[in-house]
Design goal:
There is one protein chain. By secondary structure, the chain is mainly alpha-helical. The protein is built from eight helices and two strands. Helices cover about 50% and strands about 5% of the residues. It starts with a strand and ends in a 9-residue tail after the last helix. Helix 2 (about 25-35) crosses helix 4 and helix 2 (about 25-35) packs across helix 5. The chain has helices at about 5-10, 25-35, 40-45, 50-55, 60-70, 80-90, 95-105, 120-130, and strands at about 1-5, 75.
Length: about 140
């Protein structure tokens, strides 16, 4: 299952003169947070465990990892069962991730690299969602 694809962002209504990588920054940050929680998928823990460790410890940008090892696509293979359980709701079609990102980092969306984001603040946003369990939009009745 594909959660997101950077090309969906840089291939659409995207600010002029921005590198394609900026279309994947919000995805890469989410992936880094998942890796920090120990939710990297077997695909990555088996094939490039050192790169996963480097992302977790900030020695390799998650954006670089995302484009090099994921080809700019975020799929269920990138995460383990725990990560997919969270992502399928929070990042899924009815999920709140993109709204949360836009609310907290909207001024950086598509125009700033990963390094311009406060990862501690980003992590706190996701940690809060995980703790409350409110991951999806409520259905209007």
């Amino acid at each position: 299952m594909k959660y997101d694809d950077a090309s969906w962002h840089y291939g659409g209504d995207f600010p002029a003169a921005q590198p394609n990588e900026h279309g994947g920054t919000h995805i890469a940050l989410f992936l880094k947070w998942c890796f920090c929680r120990g939710w990297a998928g077997e695909l990555h823990t088996e094939d490039e465990p050192e790169a996963v460790t480097q992302v977790v410890h900030g020695r390799l940008s998650a954006t670089e990892f995302f484009f090099k090892y994921c080809d700019g696509k975020f799929t269920d293979e990138d995460l383990n069962d725990n990560g997919n359980s969270f992502a399928s709701k929070y990042y899924g079609d009815n999920g709140l991730y993109l709204e949360d990102y836009a609310e907290h980092f909207g001024d950086l969306m598509y125009v700033a690299p990963e390094a311009a984001h406060d990862f501690a603040r980003f992590s706190a946003m996701l940690d809060s969602r995980l703790a409350t369990g409110v991951l999806e939009k409520t259905k209007e009745t």
